[in-house]
């Protein structure tokens, strides 16, 4: 054997991930992530706006929304929640194209929140295509930057 655990799978070539320490309590970060009245203000890359049609944050629940691009293009999105553990973890499938599974964890850390978000694609090719076509890496970074700015606006639970 080559010393590697044959049961461990390296999936980094099929993922887009981000970790950020946010300057807010975990409960507040959870609220702005799961409440359509909040998420519509920060979700998506710079210049995008959102119309939320449905957001049912529970296992089997749907999140249906349209992201309106700054170029006038509308992007319909459908998400199905797989796992919801308040205020710790959300797992969902993005079932519209491109398809991927996302895991988001919210870890309390000295009155702040360590956010981990991992988008997992079936293949490296699909991940690469999503990065190329949609600018997914930079878009994810911009989205989390918008979240970080939004939660500093004096929001309360």
What does this structure look like?
The protein is of the alpha+beta class and 157 residues long. The chain has a domain at 14-25 and 56-133: START domain (Alpha-D-Glucose-1,6-Bisphosphate, Chain A, domain 4). 27% of the residues lie in helices and 38% in strands. The chain is built from 4 helices and 7 strands. Helix 1 packs across helix 2 (36-42). The N and C termini lie far apart (54 Å).
Please give a quick description of this structure:
The chain is an alpha+beta fold and 157 residues long. 27% of the residues lie in helices and 38% in strands.
Which labels suit this protein?
Alpha-D-Glucose-1,6-Bisphosphate, Chain A, domain 4; 7 strands; alpha+beta; 4 helices; 157 residues; globular; 27% helix
Kindly estimate the percentage of residues that lie in beta strands according to DSSP: 35-45%
Strand order of the largest sheet: 1-7-6-5-4-3-2
* Low-pLDDT sequence parts: 1-8
CATH topology of the domain at 14-25 and 56-133: Alpha-D-Glucose-1,6-Bisphosphate, Chain A, domain 4
Helical amount: 25-40%
Summarize the biggest pleated sheet: 7 strands, antiparallel
Give the name of the CATH architecture of the domain at 14-25 and 56-133.
Answer: 2-Layer Sandwich
Give the termini distance in whole angstroms.
54 Å
Oligomer: single chain
CATH class of the domain at 14-25 and 56-133: Alpha Beta
Radius of gyration: 16 Å
Strand-helix topology:
Blueprint: E1 15-22, H1 26-34, H2 36-42, E2 49-55, E3 62-68, E4 74-85, E5 89-94, E6 100-109, E7 112-120, H3 124-134, H4 136-150
Helix pairs in contact: 1-2, 3-4
């Amino acid at each position: 054997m080559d010393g590697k655990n044959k049961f461990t799978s390296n999936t980094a070539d099929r993922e887009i991930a981000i970790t950020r320490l946010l300057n807010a309590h975990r409960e507040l970060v959870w609220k702005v992530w799961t409440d359509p009245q909040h998420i519509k203000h920060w979700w998506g890359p710079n210049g995008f706006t959102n119309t939320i049609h449905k957001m049912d944050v529970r296992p089997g629940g749907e999140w249906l929304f349209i992201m309106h691009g700054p170029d006038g293009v509308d992007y319909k999105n459908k998400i199905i929640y797989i796992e919801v553990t308040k205020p710790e973890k959300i797992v969902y499938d993005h079932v519209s194209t491109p398809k991927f599974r996302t895991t988001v964890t919210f870890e309390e850390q000295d009155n702040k929140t360590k956010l981990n978000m991992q988008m997992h694609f079936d293949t490296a090719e699909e991940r690469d295509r999503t990065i190329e076509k949609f600018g997914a890496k930079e878009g994810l970074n911009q989205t989390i930057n918008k979240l970080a700015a939004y939660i500093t606006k004096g929001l309360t639970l």
